[in-house]
Amino acid sequence: MKRTILTAGLVFAMSVLAMAQDNPYIVKTKGVKKPDPQVTETKEDNQTDAVEDDDDSFLGKNFRFYSMCDWKNGMRFMVVPEKYDLLVNTFHDSKTDKEVSSARLRHRIMVYKGHEDMPNGRVHVNFYCEDDKKDYYYELPNGTFDDYCFGKMGVPTLAYLGDVDKARELLMGQTLITRTQFFRVDTEYDGDGYKEVTVDKNMPVVVKAVGVGTRSFPVKIIVEDENGNQFYQNVAMSKTNSGMRDDEFIVDNEKFLFEGSFEYTSGKMEVAKDIKSYLNQVVHNKYATAMSSKGSGKVRDVKVPKFTGFFIDEIKQVKGTRYFTLTLRETESRRIYYKDVTFTEEDVVGDANGSKEDYFGYLFGMGEGISRNTSVETRAAIREGRVIRGMSEEEVLLAVGEPYSSMVNSEGVRQWIYGRSNGVILDVFFDKKGKVKLAKARKGVLGGIGGGKLPAGSTTTGTGGVTTNGGAAKKVPMSRRTPMGGRSMGTPLQ
Fold it and tell me: How far apart, in Å, are the Cα atoms of 475 and each of 251, 407, 452, 469?
């Protein structure tokens, strides 16, 4: 008898695990495994959360709140019981009227079928289960449906899948910016165990998976940083069935709001009809892009790293076109850049030489480009146009612009070369992690690199174009696209 019970238990456990493995809504960070019994792990608890009511350009348009009064037949939910739900059953079997264990219904998908008033005066909220093909109901604790539906209590255990599906459609593969340092990593493949991790704030990450989190935080977003580390946050996208009050979405719970954990940078920005409204505003470029920049009294093309912040100082229409030249002042270095854009997307389509980056709403986002997590010392160096040890390649670009040339020696060390109008050459050496290892100045003349030879085994690249011919270095003309404004780009020494 004991063996029969044990066998039945094992079969049930394996079936639950198999269902979890086959369920596309259950996603885990890579490397997840069953927790070590000696390690104390945090479990999902009965936390509370919701999302703000503001009609945000991303959330407001895509994640509508549905009170129970607005629920439509066919809306889909998943049973995600929390600790309390395992003690108090939520659903009844419609055929037998018997209570059904929430644990048994865990991860089952329930489809809303409306509500009905019963002869005994109670109200049943009806569902059809996609997994076992049975009907279930939730009995309202008291009052009429109209009295109940306007509140935020909803149906316990149910996470709204409409938010999950929409988040998948919009966010998969997109770049987000971390807005908090506190995230989680899964520790159980077939459970809800996790551990807290701390990451850099204002860091670009890519969405790798979207699945179901909890009832209060229905959307589980798994992201990956540039080093391949994955972590996640369960967040609220709308208030649908969250069961939470607005005043509970503060302090520790703020990170479980989507905008408390992430900034959405991709997609097209809504462009105002009044172009002058962007004057003196702060924007950031969502993608690395070519801009024009002044140096030594001349104008040249440079590639500006993504998430760079700018003040828009001037907007001037390019004569004879529907393009406008933006005068952009970088928020850290105060360096001036120029970018030709159109404020009408159709103009890009009709321009044979245009690209989607020419559309203001595609390239720029409102607010400062906050992804670079630089130190006070680094920010000061960028403003002063200096290169210091530990800078990243992007920070060097912000400080002194693009190099005249670059080379990689036989040991894999990358060197950037800058020439200045006072006859000084600046050599910047990077380590294998892309950080500045050494920056030193020397006397010389670009074109012959001070009359010397390039290091043995070196290869060269760069917009300035230095190459070797029998060991002697010579300048290679820079080829670049002239902006819509019609400026002629030079190749000045910095």
Answer: 58, 14, 14, 11
Tell me how crowded residue 34 is: count the other CB atoms within 10 A of its CB.
11
In angstroms, rounded to a whole number, what is the distance separating the alpha carbons of residues 236 and 205? 19
Residues near 349 by Cβ (< 8 Å), separated by ≥ 6?
none
Strand order in the sheet with 91-93: 99-100, 91-93, 135-139, 123-129, 109-117, 76-79, 158-160
pLDDT at res. 11: 42
The first and second tokens of residue 93, run together, are 């079997």
Class of residue 18 by CB neighbours under 10 A (exposed 0-12, middle 13-18, buried 19+): exposed
Name the token pair of 375: 């130190």
CA separation for the pair 316, 278 (Å, rounded): 12
Q: How far apart are CA 48 and CA 144, in angstroms?
A: 26
Nearest to 49 by CA among 264, 231, 213: 213
Do residues 29 and 193 touch, judged by C-beta distance below 8 A?
A: no
Residue 446 clears pLDDT 70, i.e. is over it: no
Amino acid at 395: E
Q: Whole-angstrom distance between the N-terminal and C-terminal Cα of the chain? A: 86
Q: What's the pLDDT tens digit per position in 413-433?
A: 899 998 876 778 999 999 988
What is the Cα 207 distance to its own chain's centre? 6
Amino acid 355 reads S
Instruction: Decide if 391 contacts 436 (C-beta within 8 A).
Output: yes
Amino acid at 10: L
Question: What is the per-residue DSSP string for 111-135?
Answer: EEEEEEE-TTS-EEEEEEETTT--E
Mapped onto helix, strand or coil, the DSSP state of residue 302 is strand
**Residues whose CB falls within 8 Å of the CB of residue 121, separated by 6 or more in sequence, listed in order:** none
Could you tell me the two tokens for 143? 């009052």
**Cβ contacts of residue 91 below 8 Å, gap of 6+?**
79, 99, 100, 102, 105, 127, 136, 137, 138
Give pLDDT, residue 373. Answer: 61
pTM for the complete prediction? 0.64
Strand 459-461 relative to strand 405-408, pairing: antiparallel
Position 462 pLDDT exceeds 70: no
Q: Count of CB atoms within 10 A of residue 22's CB?
A: 8
Q: Is 311 exposed, middle or buried (0-12, 13-18, 19+ CB in 10 A)?
A: middle
Contact at 8 Å (CB) between 443 and 491?
no
* Sign for the pseudo-dihedral over CA of 254, 256, 257, 258: positive
